[in-house]
Design a protein that fits this description.
The chain is an all-alpha fold and about 140 residues long. The chain contains 4 helices and no strands. Helix 3 runs antiparallel to helix 4.
């Protein structure tokens, strides 16, 4: 009798041996199924270990942050706000490179002010001005 694909074989036509085992029992798949079962079991054990490890690490971090006085569930927002308020991300103040004339004018004005307040004498004022003008 020729079977077509997908046809049903009635159980009364399958030959069984004395133990009641049919012809498809030992087709070499038993070893592969046992190997798959062992591999699947190993994957499950590793996954469970990963979940437990993550939970332990998470609880430890929660406790450390809580002991430090930081709200553990909002620590990332608190850190971001602190960084934004700090000078780390503030734009740098524009640097004005003073020209030599500006420096000289400021120095002469400072010497005149010191002389006017009586901090330096006439001779000191004259010597300091001539030194500033020489550069």
């Amino acid at each position: 009798m020729t079977m077509l694909w997908g046809e049903f074989i009635p159980t009364d036509e399958i030959p069984f041996d004395d133990t009641g085992v049919g012809p498809f029992y030992d087709n070499g798949m038993a070893t592969a199924q046992n190997g798959f079962g062992a591999l699947f079991g190993l994957v499950v054990v590793v996954a469970i270990a990963g979940v437990i490890f993550s939970a332990v690490v998470g609880m430890r971090k929660y406790r450390v942050l809580n002991d430090a006085g930081v709200a553990p569930l909002t620590v990332d927002a608190a850190i971001a706000a602190k960084v934004l308020r700090s000078d780390v991300l503030a734009p740098a103040a524009p640097t004005v490179t003073p020209t030599p004339e500006t420096k000289l004018e400021e120095r002469l004005a400072e010497l005149d002010d010191l002389h006017a307040r009586g901090v330096i004498s006439d001779d000191e004022h004259r010597d300091a001005r001539s030194a500033a003008l020489r550069g």
